[in-house]
Each structure stands twice: as C-alpha cells, then as structure tokens.
C-alpha cells in the first residue's frame, strides 16, 4: 500500500470533538476522502457545524488548494461504523479512557479489513497498552496531532511493542505527504515525545511560581522571548550545535541538581481543575478574560498559527541544508 493508494481512498476519523474535527479538515486539505464518524449521540450535528467553521478558516488561511466545495464533496459524516468498511486508515480520537477506546476499536475492527491501519491520537496512554485491544496489533500505532491539525507541521508517530516497523515508516511518509514534519518515537513511553518535554517545563515553571521566585506572567515572558525567539527555526539540539556546547556542560552540572523532581500535581493546576477552568472557552483560568478579550485571543491565535506555519516552511531544516550545500559547492 503506497501513499498514492491510500490518498485515493478513504480515511476514517472516529470521534469528532475539537481535535477529531480538526484532523478531518487536515485530511480533506490533503486530498483524502474522509469518513467522519460521530460515536456519541448528538455529536454529528455539532461536528458538522464545527467542521464547516474550520474549513472556512482553513480556506481563509490558504490551506485549501481547491477551495471548500471539493473538500465538502469528499466528506461523509456518519454514525454507522459499517461505513468505515472502505477505509485503509482509521484515526481514533475519542476520550482518554481505555474502556471507551476498547469498545471503539472492536467496532472499527468489525467494520474494516485486516489490512486497515488503526491509529490512536492519544497523548496519554502508551500505544503498547492500546494495541492489545485490537485483533491486528502489528497494524496499530499512535499518530499524535497538534491543534489546529490543518495548520501545524507537528505530527508524532509512535510504534508500540508489536507494531510492524514498516507501518511506522509508512505513516512517516504519509505525514510528509500531509505537509507535516513528523517525528518517530523509537520506544513507546508514556507521554511520548512532546508531552514529556513540555510537562518538564510546566513542572519547573509552576514550582518556581509556587515558591515565589517568579510570577506566572514573567514565567511566560521568559519562555516566550527566549525559547520563542528561535524554537520555530531550530530544535534544542540544533540550538546547542549552533551556539556551541562547551558552556552547556557547566550549566548542566550546576542546574540539573537544583531542578524540581516533584511527583505531585502543582497546587495552581489542581485549583484550576477544581474550578472547571478552561481559559478563553469559559473565561476562567490562570489569567482573567472577558468575552471580548477571549475572542481577540482566539482570532490572534488563528492568525499566529498561519504565520508560524509559513515561517516554519521558510526555514525548513531540509531547505536550509540544501541551501548550505549549494553555497558550499558554489
């Protein structure tokens, strides 16, 4: 099964919440026929409206080469698992509950062929634990997206203990065909790559705030204007390579022993959960919001995602290497 084969057939997406709907739009933008399945009663109508909004945003951002109409024509919104029968790849995007996922996998497996790849968008449950729930674990893996899926270059592919390595390589190639710069987690670990990196940052920053060393706002500024000034162009190891590694050795010796290794949930975050805080979505969170400011943040973030997508393409690592080789040879 090559890239051209799967792109000429349908891809299924089961679970049409915020992330699932965003993935649907990304797949449509890439030229797929998509069978989008709403597993929860009443979700189909809400998802239809949300996908329509996302398609309009994707089109305004220049992400739909053919415009909206061809994408709509390639989309099938359903509630019947049997309509996944023609899919060569099915993405699971339901809640992070193993029992719920097991039921969903059973219904997907009953509908599709043994050759179908089943992928989970989980960001919390190890793939090796999930793949035992399907009849063909060698064709099961993790494909973790970032929001909004259709305008970010992030895609994290994770093979479980029993995943056929060829399936992982195939998903990497497919991710590149989707315009992503996918990563492959070589060993399945809880949290995968990006969550383990970011939660280490969250733990340290929240600990510094709780201990009175810094405010939330200043922690955000430090991260935004230091790492934020270079991280779209290069990764952390590329940064070390460019700036020189000698100074990092002494810094690592001094700082690592003093970093937080706490295992509890920081009180600030627990308080947010207890309050049901969802930031701009319900005007309750780490910062105060009004309806007007929430809308401004949402609009600004949408525009920023478009800008960053284009900036990342402009400073793509492969392009920089090619330009460097051209400069050296000339």
Structural descriptors:
alpha/beta; eight-stranded mixed β-sheet; 14 helices; 12% strand; globular
What does this structure look like?
By secondary structure, this protein is an alpha/beta fold. It contains 14 helices and eight strands. An eight-stranded mixed sheet has the order 3-2-1-4-5-6-7-8, with helices on both faces. Strand 7 (155-159), helix 7 (165-177) and strand 8 (183-185) form a beta-alpha-beta unit. It is globular and about 55 Å long. Mean pLDDT is 90; it is low at 324-330.
Approximately how much beta-strand content do the residues carry?
5-15%
Q: What's the average pLDDT?
A: 90
Structural class: alpha/beta
Low-confidence stretches: 324-330
Number of strand segments: 8
- Which sequence of strands runs across the widest sheet? 3-2-1-4-5-6-7-8
Order of helices and strands: HEHEHHEEHEHEEHEHHHHHHH
Number of helices: 14
CA-based gyration radius: 21 Å
Outline type: globular
Helix content: 40-55%
Biggest sheet architecture: 8 strands, mixed
How far apart the termini lie comes to 41 Å
Brief overview:
This protein has helices spanning 3-7, 18-29, 43-60, 68-73, 98-111, 127-130, 165-177, 194-210, 216-225, 236-243, 246-255, 267-274, 291-314, 317-329; strands at residues 10-14, 33-37, 75-78, 87-92, 117-120, 140-145, 155-159, 183-185.
């Amino acid at each position: 099964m090559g890239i051209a084969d799967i792109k000429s057939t349908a891809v299924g997406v089961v679970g049409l919440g915020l992330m699932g709907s965003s993935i649907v739009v990304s797949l449509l933008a890439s030229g797929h026929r998509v069978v989008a399945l709403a597993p929860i009663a009443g979700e189909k109508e809400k998802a239809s409206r949300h996908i329509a909004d996302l398609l309009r945003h994707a089109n305004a951002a220049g992400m739909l080469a053919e415009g909206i109409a061809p994408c709509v024509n390639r989309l099938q919104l359903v509630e019947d698992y049997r309509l996944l029968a023609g899919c060569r790849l099915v993405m699971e995007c339901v809640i992070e509950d193993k029992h719920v996922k097991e039921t969903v996998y059973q219904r997907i497996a009953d509908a599709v062929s043994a050759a179908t790849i089943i992928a989970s968008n989980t960001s919390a449950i190890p793939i090796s634990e999930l793949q035992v729930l399907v009849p063909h674990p060698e064709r099961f893996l993790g494909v973790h997206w970032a929001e909004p899926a259709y305008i970010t270059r992030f895609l994290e592919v994770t093979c479980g203990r029993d995943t056929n390595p060829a399936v992982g390589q195939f998903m990497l190639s497919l991710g590149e065909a989707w315009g992503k710069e996918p990563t492959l987690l070589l060993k399945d670990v809880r949290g995968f790559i990006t969550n383990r990196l970011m939660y280490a940052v969250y733990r340290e920053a929240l600990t510094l705030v709780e201990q009175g060393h810094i405010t939330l706002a200043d922690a955000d500024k430090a991260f935004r204007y230091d790492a934020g000034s270079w991280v779209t162009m290069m990764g952390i190891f590329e940064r070390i390579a460019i700036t020189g590694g000698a100074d990092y050795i002494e810094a690592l010796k001094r700082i690592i022993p003093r970093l937080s290794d706490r295992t509890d949930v920081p009180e600030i975050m627990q308080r947010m959960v207890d309050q049901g805080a969802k930031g701009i979505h319900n005007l309750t969170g780490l910062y105060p919001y009004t309806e007007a400011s929430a809308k401004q943040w949402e609009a600004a973030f949408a525009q920023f995602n478009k800008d960053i997508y284009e900036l990342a393409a402009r400073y793509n690592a492969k392009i920089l290497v090619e330009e460097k080789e051209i400069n050296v040879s000339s």
